Amino acid sequence: MIDFSAISINVLVLILRLVVVVLLYTFLWQVLRTITSDLRRGVTPIVEESSPYGQFILVSAGQTGLSVGKSFPLQPVTSIGRSLDSDIALNDGFMSADHARLELRDEGWVLHDLGSTNGTFVNGFEVKSATIVYNGDVVRVGRVELRMVL
Question: 0.85 exceeded by the pTM?
Answer without folding.
Answer: no
